[in-house]
């Protein structure tokens, strides 16, 4: 004769097994869907590359610069500004394009660099060597 507690335990065990089976089935279905979507994405990227002649862009990842990379970026930014026309200066966009780093990293490098002056506001700002 089984007690009520044993019956409850048996029902719980059966329910837990069913839950695990459903979870495994859901994971399998999601893996299949992910694989299908990745295949579709690769075909879309190939079509994009064929139409534009440019590789499709991947998602951006955040990159933190080490102390050495920051120091090198400050030197690079200073060199870029030095090579610019002394009378006309150089815009932030041009500096960032030549430096090849993120805008925020270039902005921080300009702030920490010594001997750089700026004239103008917002997008009209030009940078010069003092």
Quick structural gist:
The protein is mainly alpha-helical.
Describe the structure.
The protein folds into 2 domains: 59 residues; 63 residues, Arc Repressor Mutant, subunit A, CATH 1.10.10. It contains 4 helices and 3 strands. The chain has a 3-stranded antiparallel sheet. Strand 2 and strand 3 form a beta hairpin.
Keywords:
single chain, Arc Repressor Mutant, subunit A, elongated
Question: Helices and strands in order, then pairings?
Answer:
Blueprint: H1 4-52, H2 67-83, E1 90-91, H3 92-99, H4 103-112, E2 116-119, E3 126-129
Antiparallel strand pairs: 1-3, 2-3
Largest sheet: 3 strands, antiparallel
Helix content: 55-70%
Total number of domains? 2
N-C termini distance: 95 Å
Strand content: 5-15%
Class inferred from helices and paired strands = mainly alpha
CATH topology label of the largest domain: Arc Repressor Mutant, subunit A
Find the count of extended strands (DSSP E, 2+ residues): 3
Low confidence ranges: none
Could you give the order of strands across the largest sheet? 1-3-2
Shape: elongated
**CATH architectural grouping of the largest domain:** Orthogonal Bundle
On the 0 to 100 scale, the average pLDDT is 88
For the record, the CATH class of the largest domain is Mainly Alpha
**Topology as H/E string?**
HHEHHEE
| CA-based gyration radius | 29 Å
């Amino acid at each position: 004769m089984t007690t009520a507690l044993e019956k409850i335990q048996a029902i719980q065990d059966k329910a837990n097994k069913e839950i695990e089976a459903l979870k495994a089935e859901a994971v399998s279905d999601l893996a299949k869907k992910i694989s299908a979507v990745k295949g579709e994405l690769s075909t879309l990227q190939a079509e994009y590359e064929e139409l534009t002649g440019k590789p499709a862009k991947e998602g951006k990842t955040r990159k933190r610069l080490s102390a050495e990379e920051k120091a090198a970026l400050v030197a690079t930014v200073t060199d870029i500004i030095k090579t610019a026309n002394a009378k006309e200066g150089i815009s932030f966009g041009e500096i960032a394009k030549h430096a090849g780093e993120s805008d925020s990293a270039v902005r921080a490098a300009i702030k920490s660099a010594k001997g750089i002056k700026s004239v103008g506001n917002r997008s009209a700002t030009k940078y010069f060597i003092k």
